[in-house]
Amino acid sequence: MTMRNRGALAALAAGVAALTVATVVACASQPAGNVGAEEASTLATTPATPSASAADGPSVPVTAGELPAGTKTVPPVRLVIPEIDVTATVNAVGINERTNEFEVPPSVDQIGWYRYGPGLEATSGSVVVAGHVDSARQGKGAFFRLRELNQGDTLTATGSDGTARQYRVVAREEYAKTRIPLDRYFARDGKPRLTLITCGGPFDAKARRYRDNIVVTAVPA
């Protein structure tokens, strides 16, 4: 695992980008609780363990797994989630070289795909997309209502090849940012799945960030 790949994961321990928000209203309506956590866990080949704290820096463990040799990566370019009225452009992102954080697009109506992980063509591993929940300057983000998704909801990810791929939600989980099992969600092995991540939980006004991450896992329909 290169430092480039490992460093990009630090953002989720510190927060999916450093959101600047004015109020806790964005996460005032929380889901009734986690659903499908066990099913999400079984999608990974190896058991996940809690990640190190954000203070430990960018050395976040990632489940082993290599992309198939000779495979052309197909990045997602558009995501549609009818249940929560999302139609968003997806941009390929990596890490911010200055902050070592997952570089979510600055425009809150767009989301980012982790380009060092699997693409939509992959037959194994987790395709990760992350987005803002909101912003003090721009308002509600593309993933403002991500916490409302439930098992059985459907979404469509369209790739750069023009193919629209259907997914079905199997899990919705909430973690404190220091406890999210990054090795599971950024894995290149295990069953194919789409992982959606945003911020959630109460807003820490002093730290100017949300306490938690909301993670939704979907599998090919």
UniProtKB/TrEMBL annotation:
<dbReference type="GO" id="GO:0016787">
    <property type="term" value="F:hydrolase activity"/>
</dbReference>
<feature type="signal peptide">
    <location>
        <begin position="1"/>
        <end position="28"/>
    </location>
</feature>
<keyword id="KW-0732">Signal</keyword>
<dbReference type="InterPro" id="IPR005754">
    <property type="entry name" value="Sortase"/>
</dbReference>
<dbReference type="InterPro" id="IPR042001">
    <property type="entry name" value="Sortase_F"/>
</dbReference>
<protein>
    <recommendedName>
        <fullName>Sortase family protein</fullName>
    </recommendedName>
</protein>
<dbReference type="Pfam" id="PF04203">
    <property type="entry name" value="Sortase"/>
</dbReference>
<dbReference type="InterPro" id="IPR023365">
    <property type="entry name" value="Sortase_dom-sf"/>
</dbReference>
<feature type="compositionally biased region" description="Low complexity">
    <location>
        <begin position="41"/>
        <end position="55"/>
    </location>
</feature>
<feature type="region of interest" description="Disordered">
    <location>
        <begin position="41"/>
        <end position="60"/>
    </location>
</feature>
<keyword id="KW-0378">Hydrolase</keyword>
